[in-house]
């Protein structure tokens, strides 16, 4: 049967919905941001599958704002994950993940993950020092001593949120179908050398009848207590200038999970786009 404690992993996957890589073409000089702007808001609904039944379990909201970080122009990108009210009485989940990134290069300055899942409370903070090629971390967990650490960052690494927004601006026409694209990602105080496999272009049709032409990927997953490892996740991102994540599916140790775009607001482009309006709602059920 459905284990409501798996909500934390469903929401984590939703935050990863378009986190498909710090690609080999990245340079410290940065890239042009054409895909998003301050004021963009995306909402995703998470589902858990057991047998033939899909159960709506959680929701993630992503928002971009213009702010300053240490007197430097920055985007503040925030992801709010929560269990649906129907499940709060049994397992209440409220996670907040935020990061500050340079508005030119989209490199992260700072990453902060606040976790509140049932009785479990924790906070992970990371500071990126590009002059010294280091990442400084501070981790606090309920009833445990504070832990500080320094990680090497000789090849640029990103957190799971900032890498998603960086990736939305890459030129995927440079990559061949089935090509592996290397990435480095910071997860739980460890830098992982991973990759994504580009699978080409595919149409995604939602229950509402809407059809989106999408770029399709499968990221390599870290083996752990949720995943077997390998390429058991598939991600679809709109093949237009907005590069909006549309859907993600992943196999877990028991069952599978799915994330679907629910609503969008403040999109940067409506020209030659699947999204004719800057704001709207996607009918899921």
- Shape type: globular
Largest sheet: 15 strands, antiparallel
| Proportion of beta-strand residues | over 45%
How many domains, as an integer?
Answer: 1
Order of helices and strands: HEEEHEEEEEHEEEEEEE
InterPro entries: DUF3108
Protein name: DUF3108 domain-containing protein
Organism: Ancylomarina euxinus
Give structural notes:
- This protein is mainly β and 285 residues long.
- The chain has one domain (4-281).
- The protein is 7% helix and 49% strand.
- The chain is built from 3 helices and 15 strands.
- It has helices at residues 7-15, 85-88, 162-167, and strands at residues 41-50, 53-69, 72-83, 94-102, 108-117, 120-129, 134-141, 147-152, 180-187, 190-205, 211-219, 233-238, 245-251, 256-265, 280-281.
- The chain has a 15-stranded antiparallel sheet that branches.
- The longest helix has 9 residues, at 7-15.
- The chain starts with 6 loop residues before the first helix and ends with a strand.
- The model is unreliable at 1-7 and 9-29 (pLDDT under 50).
Key terms for this structure?
DUF3108 domain-containing protein; 3 helices; 7% helix; DUF3108; 15-stranded antiparallel β-sheet; globular; single chain
Provide a compact summary of the structure.
The protein is mainly beta and 285 residues long.
Provide the fold topology.
Blueprint: H1 7-15, E1 41-50, E2 53-69, E3 72-83, H2 85-88, E4 94-102, E5 108-117, E6 120-129, E7 134-141, E8 147-152, H3 162-167, E9 180-187, E10 190-205, E11 211-219, E12 233-238, E13 245-251, E14 256-265, E15 280-281
Antiparallel strand pairs: 1-2, 1-14, 2-3, 3-4, 4-5, 5-6, 6-7, 7-8, 9-10, 10-11, 11-12, 12-13, 13-14, 14-15
């Amino acid at each position: 049967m459905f284990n409501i404690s798996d909500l934390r992993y469903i929401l984590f996957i939703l935050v990863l919905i378009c986190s498909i890589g710090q690609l080999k073409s990245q340079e410290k000089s940065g890239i042009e941001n054409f895909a998003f702007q301050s004021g963009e808001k995306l909402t995703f609904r998470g589902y858990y599958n057991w047998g033939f039944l899909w159960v709506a379990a959680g929701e993630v909201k992503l928002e971009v704002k213009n702010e300053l970080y240490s007197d430097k122009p920055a985007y503040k990108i925030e992801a709010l994950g929560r269990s649906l009210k129907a499940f709060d009485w049994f397992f209440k989940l409220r996670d907040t993940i935020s990061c500050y990134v340079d508005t030119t290069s989209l490199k992260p300055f700072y990453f902060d993950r606040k976790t509140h899942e049932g009785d479990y409370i924790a906070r992970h903070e990371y500071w990126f020092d590009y002059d010294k090629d280091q990442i400084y971390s501070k981790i606090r967990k309920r009833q445990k001593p504070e832990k500080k650490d320094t990680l090497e960052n000789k090849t640029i690494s990103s957190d799971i949120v900032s890498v998603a927004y960086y990736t939305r601006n890459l030129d995927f026409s440079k990559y061949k179908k089935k090509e592996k694209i290397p990435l480095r990602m910071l997860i739980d105080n460890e830098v992982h050398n991973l990759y994504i496999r580009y699978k080409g272009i595919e149409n995604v049709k939602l229950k509402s009848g809407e059809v989106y032409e999408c770029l399709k990927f499968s990221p390599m997953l870290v083996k752990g207590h949720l995943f077997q490892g390998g390429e058991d996740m598939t991600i679809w991102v709109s093949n237009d200038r907005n590069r909006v994540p549309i859907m993600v599916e992943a196999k877990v140790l028991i069952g599978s999970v799915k994330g679907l775009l629910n609503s969008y607001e403040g999109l940067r482009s409506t020209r030659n786009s699947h999204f004719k309006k800057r704001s709207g709602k996607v009918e899921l059920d």
